């Protein structure tokens, strides 16, 4: 997606030569003696129109005792903010980079040098994993990235070895749950066209001490199938359990997890450690995506994991780690999968907790972000004299640019009336443009108000001031990296 125990400690032995006294030696010592404080982490996505300063987000993580974070790209601003935080990091490599990394050891060396080595050492980032691609075997990709994965892993492993990091930073490949299939968990198997490559992948992971990372989304099973029992998606018990021989499954998560366990067993790796790379429940945009359902699902999941109950095929052995999806709402994500896609955060875009949630990390509820810098408290709304017959094109303009997904059927703002819909769209556009005066004009149909027009659960947002500079820097970083890869690729050709 972007479309997921008993605490296990990694036993690592520091090399005895070559790095003594170097910053890398300090990093190695930190890795050897640090212990996993919890099994619950979060995905920190940054596809947002209203982006908090990375330092503000790191403070949010620390205030909530979140010690594990998964990133979807090596954003320099984010990695710098994580330096010295003590938070364990999984850095992601986008699928679009796999072709170059699979064919060019030079590109692989460059990636490790610029995006890993540059941030570790004394006072550096605690990078534990590199996620090579994101769901590269997804059915909808039709094999586009499939052939690049294992060669990219090989090149990156050699690059880590050359950087003296291969023992401490593990390569993983987050897979979507559609990589395997079955009617009942015990019959789980990888898709026939993936059997060979999955055997190669899992053999590589096993040889290098890496876990299998999978993303599990009961919400998507419910959303995409009208016959799916709603109570089976949660952890509260179900009137529709799945009977599988001697085993009974009372929730979709356990059933999905054990389907993977069975698939791994069929290729000879039944004891492979498993990490849930993404799992969660959205709060808005469609029917079934709401605050209550998200709280019940996520709290049920957390309680289930930290109880060490495990699953029927792995009793007493829950996943090594579970990364909730996600930390913050991402209002600029594609809505192609559904209008819920911008609303997965346990916090809203501005770092404010959406609902009470005990992560099992010491705090009984989430703590809000601190020192968030907002734009002035003003909103753009439809003028009282607005003739709605002339507003359609302006609504289209606003919602094609800004986020209006809460207005959709099932969304939190769906019931605020026609003029309320116009005001919400106008305000979203106005805040996206940092409250520029002209962005509330709409040919005289809009007006600025200092009275909060929010209604019930429908929140009219006020933007944050931390957005523009960091977003532009990240855009420049992406462009520079693409140019570098293009030059390396061209040189090889």
Q: Explain this structure to me?
A:
The chain is built from 13 helices and 17 strands. With 493 residues, it is of the alpha/beta class. The strands form 5 sheets. A 9-stranded parallel β-sheet has the order 5-4-3-2-1-15-12-9-6. A two-stranded antiparallel sheet has the order 7-8. A two-stranded antiparallel ribbon has the order 10-11. Helix 5 crosses helix 6 and helix 11 packs across helix 12 (417-432). 48% of the residues are buried.
Computed over alpha carbons, the radius of gyration is 23 Å
Give start-end ranges of low-pLDDT stretches.
2-38, 468-478
Structural class: alpha/beta
Q: What is the number of strand segments?
A: 17
Fraction in beta strands:
5-15%
Biggest sheet: strand arrangement: 5-4-3-2-1-15-12-9-6
Task: Give me the strand/helix succession.
Answer: HEHEHEHHEHEEEEHEHEEHEHEEEEHHEH
- Percent range for helical residues? 25-40%
Number of helices: 13
Main sheet properties: 9 strands, parallel
Could you tell me how far the N terminus lies from the C terminus, measured between alpha carbons in angstroms? 33 Å
Name the shape in a single word: globular
Please state the average pLDDT score. 89
Which key phrases capture this entry?
493 residues; alpha/beta; nine-stranded parallel sheet; two-stranded antiparallel sheet; 13 helices; 17 strands; globular
